[in-house]
Amino acid sequence: MTRKYFYNNSLRHAIPFAAASFTVGLALFACSDKDIDSNENNGKALVAFNVSEKQDQEQAGAKSYGPISRAAFTRELALQDLAPEDLTMQKLPVQGKAGAGLCLIETTLPGVPSQREATAQTRADITTMPTMQNFSTTAFYGYSDTSLEPWFYDKDTKKDGNLVTPIYWDWIKNHGCFYAVYPKPDNNKIKLSPASHTGTPYVNFEVEPDVKNQKDLMTACSGNVHTDIGTMSATAPRTDLTFRHALTAVRFKVGQNLSWNKTIIQVEIVGAKGKGKYTLPTDKNHIGTWSEVSTPTTFTLSGVSVSTTGAVNNVIMGHNQDNYVFYMIPQTLTGAGVQVKVFFSDGSTPITATLTGQWKPGTTKTYALSQNTSDWSYVLNVVSPTTPAAYNQTAAGNYTIQSYRQSGGTLQPVKWKVVGYQESTDGGANWSALSTTKPAWLTSLSKESGDGVISGSESGAATVQVATIVEKLTARNNALKTATAKGSASNHYDLSTYDYKGNSTNRNTANCYLISAPGYYKIPLVYGNAIKNGTNNTSAYISTTIPATTVFGWDEGLLHNFQDHANQDITTPWITLNNGGVNAPDGAKLVWADESGLVTNLSVTGSGTDGFVNFEVPASAIKNGNAVIAVTKGGTVVWSWHLWFTTQDALHTIACTNASNKVNKFTTENLGWKYTSLQGTSYSVSRKVRIKVEQEVANNGTRQHGEITITQNDYNGIGQGYGTLYQFGRKDAMPGKDGIVAQGSFSFDAGPHDATIGYAIQHPESMLNAVYGGGNYWNWCGCDYHNFWSVNNTSSAQTTTPVDKTIYDPCPVGFEMPAGDAFTGFTASVNGAWDNGWHFNNKTANPDATIYFPVTGNRQNAMGTPADGWYWMASPDFRDGAGVMHFSSGGVNSWERTGRYLGGAVRPVAE
Fold it and tell me: What InterPro entries does this protein map onto (predicted)?
């Protein structure tokens, strides 16, 4: 006995003949004794299914490259309970100030389009055999076709044709009728009629308001069948369950030659009814019936960004080119007040259109935002490959073209061809002029022209070159050297009045500044982030939290007034003015640097609110690296800053969702990351080619055109390197490993075992020892404050409270230490194998990016652990501990307690 099931990924669109359904040929058949592992069946026939997909087979048989006669068309539509008049084409007027001269062109085709070629099951995907999961089967049996009664109800059925729990045909009640529902009813939005119901089964169905959550409802009925009874065994009949789509697919696209340039960000269907009762068909040749349709609702497709000029004739897609489709309950629209509403990114008044006609089950309605041009509606649907090609792949995916014209119920194919190419080398931000020459890296297109089709679509495959891998660290450092110099010897560039991209801002200060160009720089003599957006940021150094009571015999764990190098309260942002100005700096020095010559000509100038530390970054010496500089008073360090020399993209952010669905925007690289080796593609962002496709027949002098976009991802390489390390609560960057200090000095085993805050500030060249005694055993500080990195935190345990950045925070302007729950959620979803660290998906559900966390090791004064990753959070844990995200090649812990004196990495989060 052989079960057959066929997979086909090529479903693109509907076909005008039997395309509204795909047939799952569920054949119930008998197994002889030799086919059964035991004899307990006593010769009964096992209920099992021979599963096949019929829609693609019918599409192939019906494909036509010329006009089809109305009589033949009518006969083929009748197989789907459709008539030519059901395939309406009409223009719907658009209301709204921005909609003058516009219309929605409505076209209808039998069948339901495939939303994605991939197998993800989260975006209202059409069901095909590769994506189909278990479905529900309900059966009736009896002595004859007219005496059927309930047999089994809502049984879980696997797509390989086997019931999860085997069932055998009855010897006596050998007549049956089978019903199937997919997806399996969930007793929520999809409710199957109760087991006690003895009539034709039905489904109470509710459409999800969010398109991304909608389901493609399908049902089937076998009609009456019966077994053949032999002397010692029974033989099951072949039973075809032809699954049919019960809903109407509704999609939207950008039409041709719109006279304005806008970006669509949201589409709504307003007032359509979202609940109904669907009674399954009673035989295999017809669809079921909808009744009790009710509950007008708004259905929303959001999270899109579609240019009305850049996505011509493309079906509106979401992030990562998810081809979203509304799945709606069939209903009458005329007079029902159902509207389409389209929203734009510029905040202008949305445009609306009132829908008329009817949504029929198993059909696709396409509404194109267009201009009033012709009685013929020329349709060119272009779908690009859904997934970019990897840098080391040649297959760049399949694209599809559907080209035809329609007038009333008449459809005719229209020839098309590729007419030009545009290339983008900056990820799609800018495009070259249209050319008839392909970019060299686009090897071939398997189909560059076609005759057009009215059933399904024509497809082609794109092939690209494997990208060349080159050494990139030299180029990265050269980019720093050749960048336009900042400032001059007479007019130093104030790092606090520009963001890291070079945009002018109000003054914002921090303990770390990113430098990506040579030049002359200055930093105001301000404590950490004590000035924000041009004003004094007192909340960074004075806590407003009400004092807590003493706990377990020690103090409340709250530093109310943050302290300076002399253990005196900080009462002003300016180092030059604090404590009456007695510690106004009179000198500056380099503490340490991991490359020679990064910083020269250090000096202190000015006074009061015009005091600065000045320095030069020579073009001959700048490269990826780190330096710590300090200002002094009488030779004593008063404050220090970390200078991070790297490219601006190190601070670009990746949005990651934690376990509480909070989004944290992490920087691309660890704080202070320095590459020691780096390889990647010769291009640094994804390369793209936009292929213009055009119909050969003009509509009132204008040809419809569309664009296929082929993308090949870049690979910049993770490379090898290290980042700066930090002790919990300190702002001071430490070298990421031994033996890298090229200038200045640093000690990993210095200082007392019970340091004060002031001592730590005075000694940015030292990693401080642990107390190794009492309740503060693993702390570097004799105090046990819980708010070093979050000014109002009073908790001594993991907390989800948002971080309030302090003057001891080591992060650059606009960034802060992660909260205690920042690493939950997304770190449970790993993408790929161990890579001297982990690549995490940025969220557990529907990720759209990955983020790499490399191994960092940790310091234990003179000793250290080079393996694993240790990433600090702002949350302490007990008196001498604090929270880290810790991972190894064997697993990930999103929260783990470790001693505060240890040296760990920092991955900043955007404020």
Answer: Mfa-like_1
